[in-house]
Specification:
This protein has 11 helices and 12 strands. It is of the alpha/beta class. Helix 1 packs across helix 2 and helix 4 packs across helix 5.
Length: 326
């Protein structure tokens, strides 16, 4: 696999999001998930992405088991900041310095490692000055517990304020053919400051693969059932977008998912997508996107078929939208 510079980090051009192995997308299988991680590393993936809130906590334990005997081949990224309550739907955001320190120590223990390569603030805490949160994260770097700092879903002004406290190596935000918010100033600030960009959900939470044909294709416990883009008239309209992407993918001799991933990587050498999967066959399909070369004409055609703003529905339920691009 080709490599890219993600801020100061050298990583494979496509990473692996591990969230769905433990939660959100229906029942997983730990043995197969570990096999997926091992195969990803064999194929040149280096960036593995997890969070303390996935599971909660169990995804970090799973990733830790998978990399125990191959830590030196992994750029390990995890996150803190979203606190889960007894009810899985209960969420809080915490960026207080004392919480940052405790969360990091807990993640290190679950992962079974002595340092985290890239430590993200998962969501910005509006009740805590960003300078305080980043200051605590910077202390973790000084202590050798963390190598580089990241943020997720931070807005341009917050990024600038954070960067004044300590260099930010990467920003992780949703980016795909159906979520193009980062083009509204965020990517520009990242490039101005030399911050790498990690695109999560580059396959539109699986929708852009063309595998989801109807609402009932989603498992009863799949969180996408609560996502506005997967509901009612929005679902029907978004299927039309996928049909257009599929048609072009057929012409290019690739799958719709590969075309969608190739589009993300074509938006800049500083962008690393982290498609998530818990299945070996989808992992290999996703990584095959690296072989898809998009010409200027292809990119223009995609822009015509799936222009910015053509997706129906917000990307999260209303309660979660306030924590995005904050």
């Amino acid at each position: 696999m080709k490599h890219r510079k993600l801020g100061a980090l050298d990583v494979g051009a496509i990473g692996l999001g591990c969230m769905g192995m433990s939660e959100f997308y229906g029942k997983g299988d730990d043995a197969e998930s570990i096999a997926v991680i091992h195969r990803a590393l064999e194929l040149g993936v280096t960036l593995l992405d997890t969070s303390d809130m996935y599971g909660p906590h169990t995804n970090e334990i799973l990733v830790g088991k998978a990399i125990k005997d191959r830590r030196d081949r992994v750029v390990l990224a995890t996150k803190f900041g979203i606190q889960r309550g007894p009810n899985p739907q209960d969420r809080g955001i915490n960026g207080k310095p004392e919480y940052v320190r405790g969360a990091c120590d807990a993640s290190l223990q679950r992962l079974g490692v002595d340092h985290i390569d890239l430590y993200y603030q998962h969501r910005v805490d509006a009740s805590t000055p960003i300078e305080d949160t980043i200051g605590a994260m910077a202390d973790l770097v000084k202590a050798g517990k963390v190598r580089y700092l990241g943020m997720s879903e931070a807005g341009p002004d917050t990024l600038r304020r954070a960067y004044k406290v300590h260099p930010i190596n990467a920003l992780q935000t949703e980016y795909s053919l159906w979520t193009r918010d980062p083009e509204d100033g965020i990517l520009a600030v990242c490039r101005e400051l030399g911050i790498g960009f990690v695109a999560y959900s580059p396959l539109g939470r699986g929708f852009l693969t063309g595998q989801i044909k109807k609402f009932d294709d989603l498992a009863p416990d799949d969180f996408r059932r609560h996502n506005p883009r997967f509901q009612g008239a929005n679902f029907a309209k978004n299927l039309q977008l996928v049909a257009r992407v599929t048609e072009l993918a057929t012409q290019k001799g690739c799958t719709p998912g590969q075309l969608a991933l190739a589009w993300v990587t074509a938006q800049g050498d500083d962008i690393v997508p982290i498609p998530g999967t818990k299945r070996l066959r989808y992992l290999e399909e996703n990584l095959g996107a690296e072989r898809v070369a998009l010409t200027k004409q292809d990119l223009a055609t995609i822009e015509e078929l799936a222009p910015k703003g053509s997706t129906a529905g917000p990307r999260y339920p209303e309660a979660a939208m306030g924590s995005l691009n904050r």
